[in-house]
Task: structure prediction
Amino acid sequence: MSGETDHLDELIDRLERAAAQLRSGELSPDAAATLVEDCAALAGEASAELEHRARAGAEEHSPAQDTLL
Result:
């Protein structure tokens, strides 16, 4: 899970840096638009990572569920 945590932390750091760049107002409109698109992709990746973790956590906590059915 440490590798997954590192990956999620990296995504969060990249999003925070991008937000700081956007807030600075120093980017051209084209650069800002590109950065916003990159942020959307990063957010999608982070969402997928969190969903994967949630599913893995649910499977860990209810392994007997399958045996009851």
